[in-house]
Every structure is written in C-alpha cells, then in structure tokens.
Amino acid sequence: MSRIGFKVLLFVVLFSTSWLAHAAAKVAVITPYLAQPGTQFYVEGFEVAAKDHGWDVNVIDTKGDVAAVISRLEDAVTQNVDAIVINVDPAQITAGLAAAADAGIPVVGMDSGTDPMLVTNVTSNGYAMAAETTSYVVNRLNGVGNVVMFVFDAFPPVQARGVIADAIFANTPDIKVVERITPDVQDGGIADSRAQMEALLAANPEKGSINAVWAAWDQPALGALQAIEAADRSDEGIVIVGIDANPQARDAIKADGNFEASMAQDFTGIGSTAASVVARVLSGEKIKQPVIYVPTRLVTLSNVDTMD
Amino acid sequence: MARRYGTLAGFIAVVMMLWVLLPDTFITARNLINVSQQISMLAVVAFTMTIVMAMNDFDLSVGSLASLSGITAAVLFTYDWPVAAALAAALVVGLTGGLLNGWLVSYVGILPFVATLGTLTIYSGLAFLISGGKTVFGRDIPDAFGGFSRGGIPLDWLGVEKLRIPALTVIALSVLLLVWYLLERRVFGRHLYVIGNNREAAHYAGIAVKRLRLAAFALTGVGSAAAGLMLASRVASANPTQGAGLMLDGIAAVFLGMSLHRRGEPHVIATFAGVVMLGLLDNGLTQLSVDSYVREIMVGIILLVAVGFSVLSARRLTG
Questions:
Q1: What pLDDT sits at residue B319?
Q2: Mapping DSSP to helix (H, G, I), strand (E, B) and coil, where does residue A260 land?
Q3: Helix (H, G, I), strand (E, B) or coil at B113
Q4: CATH label of the domain that carries residue B191
Q5: How far apart are CA A57 and CA A60, in angstroms?
Q6: Which of residues 115-144 of A touch B (CB under 8 A)?
Q7: Which chain B residues touch A62 with a CB distance below 8 Å?
Q8: pLDDT by residue (tens digit) across A207-247?
Q9: Ranges of each domain in chain A
Q10: At residue A183, what are phi and psi to the nearest 5 degrees?
C-alpha cells in the first residue's frame, strides 16, 4: 500500500473510532490509589458493569498525586465526558469538583467521603460492620462474659464502629467490658495492642477471666491473638473478632484458632454499585441519598475459603 | 539548525496531531487556560531549577522542599497563624533549605547530586515529622488560601465571558519574568553561565563562584517553596509528600528546553517551552483517553528522542 494510502486509512480508522466513541457515554474514573488492592477491586467492579452498559471508560491513575487529580478532572470536563467517578477525598479536590459542577457533569464518589458536590458516595457502612461483629461476640458467649475492647476514637470512621459496640454490649446485662483500650497505632497497631493485651492477661491470670476481644479493626485483634498465644492461653476459648478482613486476619481465621471473625467489605460491589449510580444519573434520575451503602459480610471459618 | 529546531518541529507536529484528533476541545482558550494552571507549579520549579542548572549543577531536593514548605504553612494554619505570616514562614523554610543546599555544595564541596540527595531525604523526613505524617485539610485551611488558586484575573474586558487568567498562572508568569531578567539581563546570570562552562576559569576571572552558587541554590529553594504553596492552595490541603513529583518533571522540562538551545545550555524561555510541552502532552493524551501508564512511557520516550536528537546532531556538527 502506498504511504499516502496508509495515512488516509489511518485517519479513517481514527476518526471512525472517535465517532463511535461519541455514540457511547464517556465516563472517566480518576484515582490516585490504583496501586492499592482495594481500589483495584472497585475499579474492576466498575469496569465490568460499565461494559454491560456499553460505556467508554477511561481509568486515570495519578499515582498518589492528589493535585494531578484536579488537573485530570479539568481535562475530563474539557473532554466533555458524561460522568466522572472519583476515589479520593473530595475535600482535597474542590477546584476540580467545581469545574465539573460548572459544566454540569455529575461526579460520583467511590468510597471517597461525603461531599455536597458529589452526586453520592458509595461505600461500606461502619455502623453495620460493628453491629455484626459485636452480635457475633454476644452470641458466642451466650450473653455472658468479660470482654476487652480495642478502639480508636480519634479517627471518625473507627469511632463510629466503637460506638455501636458500646451500645450492644451495654444492652447485654451479663456482658462486662473489663477494659476499653486505645492502642498506639504508630507501629501499625499490632505491636502495642499485643503489649497491652499481654499486660491485661498478666493482670487476669485465672482461666476464663477474659472471654472475648472485640477490636474495631484487624490489627489490634491480631496483636491480641499473638499475646494470647504467647501467654499459652489459646485453649481457654477466648473469642477474638476484628473488622476489615485483611489477608493476615483471614489467615488467622483459617487457622481455626481464637481469631474467629472479621468483616469483609465488598470492594467489587462498591465499584458495580457506583456504576449503577452513574447509569441512574445518566438516565436523568436524581439521587437523594448522599451516601449509598454496599452490604458487607461476616467472615468466619465457614466461608473464609470461598470469599474472594 | 537541525539541532536547534528538531525538538521544536517534533513538538509542533505532536500538537498538530492532538489538535486534529481533538478538534473541538484541545486548542481552545478554555483548555489552554486550564493547562496553564495545571503546569504552573511545575513551571515555577523548572524555572528556578534552570538557575542552578545554568551553573551545570542540580537540585534533587526541590520536590521534598516544596512538600516541606506546603506542610509548614498548613501546620501553622492549624495554630491559627494569619495567612500572610504562615506563607512568609514557609518561604523562609524554602530559603533556608536552599541556603543549606548551596552551603553544602559550594562551601563544603559535596557534589550537588549527593548533597541534594541527602537534603531531599532530610526535608522529606522533616515534612513527615512536623505533620505527624497526616494530611492537613478542610477547616484547618483558611478560605483565603484555598480560594486563592480558584481566583484569577477576569477577561470580561476582552469580551471573553466566564474566562479568567488563573492566579496560579499569573504567579508562574511573574516567576518566569523574574528568572529571565536575572539570568538574561543581569551580570548575575551571565556569571552563572560562565561558571557552568568552566568553573575554574570563572574563579580565575575573579567571579565569586562560591557566593554565586550559594545564591543560586537559595533562589531555587525559594522557588520550590513557592511551588509547594501553590500546590497546597490548589488542593486546599497539604500532605508531606505532595511535591514529590515535581523534581523529575522539573529536570525533564529543563532538559527538553536545553535540546532547543544552540549550545545545549539551559535558558528559562526554553524551559518554559519544555514545561508547556509536558503539560500539553499530559492534557492531550488524557483527553484522547490514552492509558495513564502508556502516557508516562510516551513522555519518557519523547524526552529521550528530543535530547538524543540534539546530542546526535551536535556530534555531527563537531565531527
């Protein structure tokens, strides 16, 4: 083929593809955190659903650079996309959100935080997660026993979990919260939780004096597990629960020891739900709720192997 | 001739291609104004980087110094410092950081690459230390500071509705003018280029090499601090790593600019062209929905091609 012929063909292909792309709705997904496993699952879930809708999805990763998120938001606005999905704290990208608002382009948050400039934020319900693990503990103890709590009230999402656990334990007359510990989290939360739990075990040497450990997230639960194993008290049947179901916690649950349960967020579901919100907005629907919760699941020995 | 205009021709070709592929949204006043704002922070870093690179030196610490200055201002905001005072303190941090770099390079005699690699780590550590590793945002950031980057000079008087020259763009252009004046119109600048050509000869010619290197690094430090503050204003928040990306892109922009110069010297107008090149590429490729990782590879290739081309044609010239 002659060179000119080839160039003509190239342009025809480029123009026809860009024309076809115009026919489908364009959606930009912008995040600085694509390298993180959770975000990858959101985006995968979103992309699968987007394919069903026939959208032209452009996933943009700014690799940790929040300022670049604003720039890419502005670019997406210039490009006149039909909708934008973000996975970043909206408070830090106000300039970009304002550009989208000016252009009338809807922006949906994917576990991003609540903001009046977002159509809605799709995320997991921290209250509900805490309610599940706390009820698990109450039921396993048949409503009777001494519980150690690991909380962190300085961080609002974790504080919300603690408040629910407090309420449920308080509503169970024969459950006694013997200690409510705020671990030092600078080391990641495991080491200091372990040290505090060891001290507590030393102070309560009698078998059966501690019946359960409720942790607002997995790291203190893992620290408590290490302390119980190191003190050689694994056989007392102390029930440990965490939240988040991180890989280390899942391994501990699989090992069928004291660590019995945690909560798994449905990251893929958050992505697909964000896609269905986009579809609703594109069809002209007005979304009322500023936050949409995607159900979470209790992870125990019975289902830890089947969960993705 | 080829050396001087090869990069420029390539750049124009790329822009034309993007224009053809994006006829309605690329070369528009609105988009170009957007791009000017997006590249403003990188521009300030690259412009002031040109000052040290004129002496054939390097500053690897600009990114972490930008982060440190931004987070300094933000942390001071949490102590209810007035905006002006916090900004001044942040600029002093930049100046001090730059002076330390200059002192290590020029008076202690550590290679710039090593000296600023060391201070890069120190400034980054300090940024984490004073912020406790956290992001400062929301109500802690005064509206006057976060709102600044959203303002600008309206263009209504030009008959253009709803458009304005963003405040950050105005700052970047002012820095461009200032650096251009210093480097191209003052003896200071001429001496820096003499040092860059041959430091020893400059010394014997009676140029105060040590003092000038100290001053040049100090200016680069202040520039980094300014860029860090612009960045913090743009995101209305500050975290201890947010300037990290500025260093490599800043150096890349200066190198792109150097490939435009007859003798391969860094000049700030050419650096400006380099920054615009990087900014338009980023913007155009995003608009074309080119994968962000592919985009990064392309930018690297373009840098290598531009600089490689100018090196090759230089070799041809000198035989």
A1: 43
A2: strand
A3: helix
A4: 1.10.3470
A5: 10
A6: none
A7: 292
A8: 999 999 999 999 999 999 999 999 999 999 999 999 989 88
A9: 3-124+267-294, 126-264
A10: -75, 155
